[in-house]
What does this fold into?
Amino acid sequence: MLYRETGQFKTTYTSDSQVFPILQDKIGLIAMLLIAFLVVPVFGSEFFVKTVMTPFLIFTLATIGLNILVGYTGQLSLGTGAFMGVGAYSCYKLATYFPETNLVLLILLSGFFSAGIGVIFGLPSLRIKGFYLAVATLAAQFFLEWCFIRIKWLYNDNTSGAINSLPREAFGYQISGGAADYIAQYIVVLCIVVMMTWVASNLIRGRIGRSWMMIRDMDIAAELMGVRPLYAKLSAFAVSSFYAGVAGAMMVFLYYGSAEPEIFDINHSFLFLFMAIIGGLGSLIGCYMGAAFIWIMPIILRELPEIIGLDINPATVEHIIFMMIGGLIIFFLIVEPHGLARLWQIAKEKLRTWPFPYT
Amino acid sequence: MNVAVKTPKTATDRKPAPEVMLDIKNITLSFGGVHAIKDVSFNIHMGEIRAIIGPNGAGKTSMLNVINGFYHPQVGEITFKGETRAAMRPYVAATQGIARTFQNVALFKGMSTLDNIMSGRTLKMHKNFFWQMLRYGPAMAEEVEHRERVEEIIDFLEIQHIRRTPVGRLPYGLQKRVELARALAMEPELLLLDEPMAGMNLEEKEDMSRFILDVNDQFGTTIALIEHDMGVVMDLSTRIVVLDHGEKIADGTPDEVSSNQDVIDAYLGVAH
Amino acid sequence: MLYNIFVDPFAQMLGAPDFLMQVLWEGFVAGTLYGLIALGFVLIFKASGVFNFAQGIMVVFSALTLVGLYQAGVPAWAALVLTIGAMFVLAWLVERIVLRNLVNQEEIILFMATIGLNYFLIGFGEYVFGGEPKKMIASELGLPTGSTTFEPFGGVLIIEHLDVAAVVVAVALVTGLAIFFNKTRIGRALRAVADDHQAAMSVGISLNQIWVIVWFAAGIVALATGIMWGAKSDVSFALQIVALKALPVLIIGGFTSIPGAILGGLIIGFGEKLFEIYWGGLLGSGVEGWFAYVIALIFLLFRPQGLFGEKIIERI
It folds into this structure.
C-alpha cells in the first residue's frame, strides 16, 4: 500500500540507472541522512555517539573496502586489519611531519599509502586464486604486523610501541588528541564515510565495477571481452586498501585515540570478513547492515543482563558473546547465505504487494 | 532499427567475397601426449559464414580456442586481418575484433542481462578512473551512449522482457541469446559461435538461425560456426570445414562436403 | 651485508655441526607437529571439501577436556577414552547442526561456518574450562620423559624422548590414515564426497555418516596433536594460533594430500628453524610469525596446487 512503484516511469536512461529508482526508497534514504546528520549529534548521548555510531561508521567503511575486493571482484583477502594499520601509521607519520595541515586531508592522503601496499600484496592474485590467495593475503597480514612492531620509525621510536592520536584540528574544531570534541569527530567520520560510500557506489555501477564483477564471475571470459585481469584485480586491491587505510587512520585518530599493533591483527581481519559476509557480499547496503550487526549486537548483549536484572560475571558474558556470535554466524549462513542485504531485498519485495498475500 | 525477416538462402546463392580474413596454417595443438589438432589449415573469407563440423572430440572447440587465444598451438601460425602470429592472446583477439560464444554458456552469472551485454562494450568505454568516481558528467554520458547501442541489440534479439533479470535465472535458450547479444555488443568483425543451437527446440533454432543470418547480412560480420545440426549447417553456411580426430578431412561448399565419402564415413563411424 | 646473508650462516652451520644437528632435529620435530595439525585439515578437506578453520580450537578443546577430566578425578586412561567419546559427540553435533544444513553451498560459506564454529568453541571452552594454562598429563598417559644426550663430532646433541614419541605417533597416524583412505571402501566414499556432494548422494553414499566419521577422525588427530603440543608447552588457548601455521603447510603439501601434509610440515619446520637460528639475527625477532607464509607464497607462485595437490584445470 505504501510501497508501490505505480506511476513512477523513467524516461531517460540516466534516470533508469539510479541506485534508488523508487521514490519511497529515495525518501527513506534522505530520512536516514537527516537522522544521521542532525538528530544523532543533537539528541544522542555521548555514549551512543562516541562508542556506538562513530566506530560503526568506521567499521562500515572498512567493510565496504573488503566487500569491493571479496564481494565484487571475488578475491578473498584476509589482510584488512594490516591494511588499516598501514593507513593508521601513515597518518601518524604524516601528522608528525605536517602538524599544521588539516587532519582530514591527511587521513585521506594516508589512504594512498595503504593503496600502494595493497597493490603490492595483490600482485600474487594474478597467478593465484581462491583460498590460496587468502594465504597470500595472510602473508601480508603477518608480515605487516611484524613491521608495525619492528620498524621503530613508524611509531616515532617511542618506548611503549604504541601510537597516539596527536592533537590536531580541522576546520577550526579539535578533532583528535585528548581534548577532542566527540561530536566534531562524529561529523567528520560521517561526512567521510558518506562521501566514500557515494564514490564506491559510482565505481560499482560503472565500467570499473562491471569489470570487477566480470573477473569475479568468469575471469577467462572477461579477458575475451577486453578486461585486463591485471588492471581489474589490482585496481580492486588498490581501492579496497585505500578504503581500509582511511578507516584505519580514522580508527586511531577519531575513535580509539591511541593504538597498539594488536588492533590491526588477524582477528580484526576476520571480524571485517564476518561483517561483509553477514551483511551480504556484493552489496553496499549490506556492509552497513553487517557492521551494525557485528558491532552493535555485542554491545546490546553486554548491557542486557543489567537491563533484565540478571547478575552475570562479565567474563562469562564475554564467553557467551563469543558463543552467540559463532552461533549466529552459523545460523545466518544456513538461513540466508547471501546475508542481511538479501533478507532486506526480500522484505522489500514482500512490502510491494502488502497487504495482499500473493506475489 | 528495422529487423526484416529473411528466408535463409542456400549457399550457392551467395557469392563469397574472396578476401581472406583469417588464415590458419598448419596448426598443431597437443596437451601432454594427446594431439587435439594435427596440422590443420583452412581460411575464412570476409563476410562468409564458415561452419566447422565433425564428430565429438574432433577438436572443433579447441580450434576456436586457438583462434581467440585461450590455447597456444605448438606448431603453426594464425594470420588475422593481415597480421601473422604464432599464437593469439585473448586480449589481443578482443581488441582486433574477435568475439565469441561458448559451448557451456559463459555468462556472468552474478549480473543482469543488461549488465552482461554492457560488459561487451568494455573495450569501447574510455572514461578514466576519476570520472568513474564522479559518475555524473562525462562518465554518465558515456554510459548512456553505450546503453543506447545495447538497447538496439536487445531489440534486435528480442530480449527486452528480461533486461533486469539475473542471467542465472534464465532458461537455457534465453541464456544463449543473451550470450549472442553480449558478443554482438563488441561489434566484432569475426564472430565465433560454439554450438549456438545446442539444446534448443525447432522454434528456438529457427529464431537463432534467423538472428545469425541477420547478423551476417546487416552488419556484415564474418561468422565461424560450430554446429551439430546438419540441416542448420547446410542451410546457413557458405563453406564448411570438417574435422575428425583433430585432422581436416574436407573443406568446401555444403554440396561438396555432403557428398564427400570421408565425411560420411566419419559420421557413420567406419573403423579406422 | 652480502657476506652476512650468504656466507656467514653457512660458516656457522659448518663450524658447529653438533648445533646444526640439534637445530635440524628441532626443525624435524616442529615439522612433524605442524604436519599433524595440517593432517586434521586435510582429512576434513579431503572428505567434505570444507576448510575447517576450527581445527585449531579442536586441538585445544580436546586437550582441555582430557586434562579437565583428569583433574576432576578420572584416571588418565579412562579420561582418554572419555575424551575420544567427547570428540565423537562433537563430530556428531557438528554434522547434525552445521553440515547437514549447508549441503552443496559454496566453499566460502562452509569456511565461514567453521569460523563461526571456532568462535563458538572458544567461548564454550573458556566458559567450561577457564582461561588459565594447564599442564598436560603426559607422564600419566605413558609418554616418555627425560632425554638422551649424544656426542657427535665431539659436541652435544640432546634428544628429548617425548619428541621421539611425537614423531612415532605422527608417523603411525599418517600411515594409518593413508591406508584407510586409499584401501578401504569408506575411504573411497570419503573421496567421492569431497568431490561432489550431490553426485555422492545420488550413488547412495550417506553424506551424514561419512561426515561424522571424518570429523571424528579429525577430532582424534586433534586430540593427538593436543597431547603432543600440550606436553611440550602447556595447554592454553594460545595454542590455536598454531593452527594458522597449518595453512602454509597445506599450501606446500596440497590441501588434499596426507603425505603432502607431513612433507609440507617438515619443509616448513626445517625452513623456519634454520632461518630463525642462522639468519634471524639480521632481521630481529618474531620472524617466524610470517616466514612460513612467505615460503608458501613463493611456492604458490611457481606451483599453485602444492607439491601433491590436484592440478586445477579450468575449461571453457
About this structure: The domain at 1-97+189-272 of chain B is CATH 3.40.50.300 (Rossmann fold).
